[in-house]
Write a structure and sequence with these properties.
This protein has about 140 residues and is an alpha+beta fold. It has one domain (about 5-120): Bacterial Protein-export protein SecB (Roll). The protein contains 2 helices and 4 strands; from the N terminus they run E-E-E-E-H-H. It has a 4-stranded antiparallel sheet with strand order 1-4-3-2.
Length: about 140
């Protein structure tokens, strides 16, 4: 069982956004998260830190693409650290750890992707909230 996991660092190494002049055919927006590696982060403190390198991509068919590459650092207990590294090596990452990692990546990268989409006039990759008039009772 996963004890407590805290996000202590998050940074991007590469941000690529491309927008083509016109879209040819149906627009299909396809996001994808890919974990590149999971390792122990060597720090000066005695703290157990898990380093996760990732890619977050959004494909807009022929309209364009967004590629975000980065890493996140998670403070974990020693058992979670060991389980995550062993699970990654054996291609059997614990579902709880996997969901925590993917949710952090999705939350952080989606915010950056929305900023880039706005700047490049690409449609948002997620449904944004909308207000609607309600009926008076």
């Amino acid at each position: 069982m996963v004890q407590e996991i805290k996000l202590i660092g998050f940074k991007y190494n590469k941000l690529i956004v491309e927008r083509n002049e016109e879209n040819k055919g149906d627009l299909k927006i396809t996001p994808n998260i890919n974990i590149q590696s999971i390792d122990k982060f060597k720090s000066e403190s005695k703290q157990d830190i898990l380093e996760v390198k990732f890619n977050f991509n959004i494909d807009y068919s022929s309209l364009g693409k967004i590629e975000l590459t980065g890493r996140l650092l998670l403070s974990v207990d020693s058992k979670t650290l060991k389980d995550a590294i062993e699970g990654w090596k054996n291609k059997k990452l614990d579902n709880n750890i996997n969901m925590i990692i993917l949710n952090v990546i999705m939350q952080k990268a989606s915010i950056k992707a929305l900023q880039l989409e706005e700047e490049m006039n690409l449609p948002p990759h997620i449904q944004l909230p909308r207000l609607q008039l309600g009926k008076k009772e």
